[in-house]
Amino acid sequence: MMQPALDPAPAAARLPQEALLDSPDPSSSPTWSGAMPWLRDSRGEWLVGGRPLSTVVAAVGSTPCYLYDRARLTARATALKSRLPREVLLHYAMKANPMPALVCHMARLVDGLDVASRGELRTALDSGMDPHHISFAGPGKSDAELEQAHATGILVNVESFRELGVLARASERSGVPARVAVRANLPFELKASGMKMSGGARQFGIDADRVPDMLREIGAIGLAFEGFHLFAGSQNLRAAAIVEAQTLCYDLAASWLDRVPSPPRTINLGGGFGIPYTVQDVPLDLDPILENLAILAGRLRGDVGGANLVIELGRFLVGEAGLYVVRVIDRKVSRGQVFLVVDGGMHQHLAASGNFGQVMRKNYPVAVNRVTAESESASVVGPLCTPLDLLADRAELDVAEPGDLVVVFQSGAYGRSASPRDFLGHPDVVEALV
Ligand SMILES: *Cc1c(COP(=O)(O)O)cnc(C)c1O
């Protein structure tokens, strides 16, 4: 994960701020798929929740901080949900951002939550989401986690015969059959995905050719079979690839329907919906995906009356609603290159540093919280004693001085919780819903 990924990736980091200012219509902005563009006020400050960034940061109390915009979270989830066919449920995959207040906010907007650990399960239960609509996936669920999952009545996406055994014993002790879905390791992968999670040998799920055995076992033990879970990959901006994967997933689930111990209630088709991180990234076109989901929902109606399809999304729902905000500590020039040394970095935002599994490092969109007459090429680096602590490599930015705020956009997913926060012992980063 921590490969020295320092490919030079200059240019392309700067938001077309002028375009954003001139055109509140997001469709005319080539960079942003967000439902609302980020705007500046007349003094050049970024507006967050309708207020200038410096005011919000003062209220939050310190930098570095993550700011999550409630209105954007709401807009993204409700816009997608309103377009989904009635049979398709929208789940939030909490590992993208498990901040408790954010999860509570999301719980009111989606149909269910997906957790990947008992820590996330606690947060999910606290959010008020009905346990019936919480599901648990992960390749290494401990006995204690499985027993807790069973006790709370959530759905377990079973990924091994060992898990089945633990749930069988817990069910026998309590007299209440555990709710299970079978997570299959797919015989194909989601093409053009940022992270491959299927196809070939994987630790996730059980191989598709063993699913019939597992179905037989679930029937023999008498667990509450509820369906299938099929997750092909992450961070995909190609609608055609997602459509293809969803159809292949549905076909596969349909091929097992003559062997299920009881009719499935849900077929979870995973997610993989990506968001743009650079000006070259074209935002995901939802239309073909929604059309295809309508087709699959129609097939499901014919195949299993009353069942639902589920899509589970993390990054797509929350990624564009978050900002990571740092303050410039120092401004240095080394052999002609400008370095803005800021008070946060890879220990709090590993993904923006390019070390969160990225094959090629690319700058996240970064901007200074003011507008200057001239712009300059500057690298934004953190306070850690490693060249990996890089938030922007030679980005074209407004001229910043110590004390200025710098914003990293697209930071709502895989930020704080996906970062090595103890590395070098700096204080933890503050998070706030705005
Ligand atoms: C990580 C994960 C997700 C969310 O992926 P995103 O790319 O953030 O949408 C969904 N389901 C499972 C099983 C996952 O592991």
Distance between the termini: 32 Å
Instruction: Give a list of the ligands.
Output: pyridoxal-5'-phosphate
- Secondary-structure-based class equals alpha/beta
Helical region count? 12
Low-confidence parts, pLDDT < 50 over ≥5 residues?
1-35
Which value, in Å, is the CA radius of gyration? 23 Å
By CATH, the architecture of the largest domain is named: Alpha-Beta Barrel
On the 0-100 scale, what is the average pLDDT?
A: 90
SSE diagram, text form:
Blueprint: H1 17-22, E1 47-48, E2 51-52, H2 53-60, E3 65-68, H3 70-83, E4 88-93, H4 100-107, E5 112-115, H5 118-126, E6 134-136, H6 143-152, E7 155-158, H7 161-174, E8 179-185, E9 195-196, E10 206-207, H8 211-221, E11 224-229, E12 233-234, H9 239-255, E13 266-268, H10 286-303, E14 308-313, H11 315-318, E15 322-334, E16 337-342, H12 350-353, E17 366-368, E18 375-381, E19 390-398, E20 405-408, E21 430-433
Parallel strand pairs: 3-21, 4-5, 4-14, 5-6, 6-7, 7-8, 8-10, 8-11, 11-13, 13-14, 16-18
Antiparallel strand pairs: 1-2, 3-15, 9-12, 15-16, 15-20, 17-20, 18-19
Helix pairs in contact: 6-7, 9-10
Would you give an account of this structure?
- With 434 residues, the chain is of the alpha/beta class.
- It folds into 2 domains: 8-68 and 320-433, Beta Barrel (Lyase, Ornithine Decarboxylase, Chain A, domain 1), CATH 2.40.37.10; 98-313, Alanine racemase (TIM Barrel), CATH 3.20.20.
- Helices cover 28% and strands 23% of the residues.
- It is built from 12 helices and 21 strands.
- The strands form 4 sheets. Strands 3, 15, 16, 17, 18, 19, 20 and 21 form an 8-stranded mixed beta sheet that branches. Strands 4-5-6-7-8-11-13-14 form an 8-stranded parallel β-barrel, surrounded by 5 helices. The protein has a two-stranded antiparallel ribbon with strand order 1-2.
- A hairpin with an 8-residue loop joins strand 18 and strand 19.
- The chain is elongated, with a radius of gyration of 23 Å.
- The model is unreliable at 1-35 (pLDDT under 50).
- The structure holds pyridoxal-5'-phosphate.
- Pyridoxal-5'-phosphate (PLP) binds next to strand 14 and helix 11.
